[in-house]
Write a structure and sequence with these properties.
GO molecular function: fructose-bisphosphate aldolase activity
Order of helices and strands: HHHHHEEEHEHHHHH
CATH class: Alpha Beta
Organism: Cebus imitator (Panamanian white-faced capuchin)
Strand content: under 5%
Shape: globular
Largest sheet: 2 strands, parallel
CATH topology: TIM Barrel
Keywords: Glycolysis, Lyase, Schiff base
Radius of gyration: 19 Å
Number of domains: 1
Structural class: mainly alpha
Number of strands: 4
Oligomer: single chain
CATH superfamily: Aldolase class I
CATH architecture: Alpha-Beta Barrel
EC number: 4.1.2.13
Protein name: Fructose-bisphosphate aldolase
């Protein structure tokens, strides 16, 4: 198939590869703090504060200005002193997709707007200082084996379009029980089926895989991430909101909660996390939002 755009130069390939390896550095990950106003709307409501731009800006500032124990990596708005978050932090990222709409003739499938104009937006984000970006499209999860089918189709399409896989990362959900399932499964079993699905349907050329927490609580996600990294299968790829409560005087408490979770996930990404049993109520709550419209 002919390229729609010029093939990447060796220098561009090296830059992309270097960025993916920086993101996947041992014990590090991605802080997803780029939610749209619609996606983040229910968070302020859960603590009794309004979904206002200033509240969203200040909460992100709390996360991104925590002390040196954590290395945040996303940005957008400005801190109190007027310095843009992309300058406050070293690594930057952007979400490229737009809205999702039902795909005609399918049983609940969606299509993501934004492919038209994608090249121009990428160029502008790069000019603004972003080093990596994310593209996503949800898939209905009531059919099995969703993970396997979607992953296989995605990598087939990427290969068909000559995508430089060494300059990409995959960010899937873990393979977990359905939202309506009442049965609890061991974290080790979640890890085993997750790694199995990825081994069968992703490419070893991809430098690393980062995970969404999905419907798991913060603590459950950390424990499952730890189990994934301890899984004996071959892997060829490398609660702050509640504490804030909308009150600026809670800044230190929020940042301590954020650092605690970041350090837990850092250990979990190496298979070294040991739950203390003192995660707190907020960290034990499920993060799923039923029937959420992104």
């Amino acid at each position: 198939m002919p390229y729609q755009y010029p093939e990447l130069t060796p220098e561009q390939k090296k830059e992309l590869s270097d960025i993916t390896h920086l993101v996947m550095a041992l014990g590090k990950g991605i802080l997803a703090a780029d939610e749209s106003p619609g996606s983040i709307a229910k968070w302020p409501q859960s603590i009794g504060t309004g979904n206002k731009e200033e509240n969203r800006r200040f909460y992100r500032q709390l996360l991104l200005t925590a002390d040196g124990r954590v290395n945040p990596c996303m940005g957008g708005q400005k801190a109190d002193h007027g310095r843009p978050f992309p300058q406050v932090i070293k690594s930057k990222g952007a979400l490229l997709k737009r809205e999702w709409f039902p795909l005609a003739g399918t049983n609940g499938e969606t299509i993501t707007q934004g492919l038209d104009g994608l090249s121009e937006r990428c160029a502008q984000y790069k000019k603004d200082g972003a080093d990596f970006a994310k593209w996503r499209c949800p898939s209905p999860s009531w059919k099995m084996p969703t993970h396997c089918k979607v992953l296989a189709a995605v990598y087939k399409a990427l290969s068909y379009h000559h995508i430089y896989l060494e300059g990409t990362l995959l960010k899937p959900n873990m393979v977990t029980p359905g939202q309506a399932c009442t049965q609890k499964f061991p974290h080790e079993e979640i890890a085993m089926v997750t790694v199995t699905a990825l081994c069968h349907n992703s490419s070893p050329a991809v430098p690393g895989i980062t995970f969404l927490s999905g419907a798991l609580s913060e603590e459950e996600a950390s424990i499952s991430l730890n189990a994934i990294n301890k899984c004996p299968l071959l892997k060829p790829w490398a609660s702050a909101l509640k504490a804030w409560g909308g009150k600026k005087e809670n800044k230190k408490v929020v940042q301590e909660e954020h650092i605690k979770r970041a350090l837990a996930n850092s250990l979990a990404s190496q298979g070294k996390y040991t739950p203390s049993g003192q995660a707190g109520a907020a960290a034990s709550e499920s993060l799923v939002i039923s029937n959420h419209a992104y």
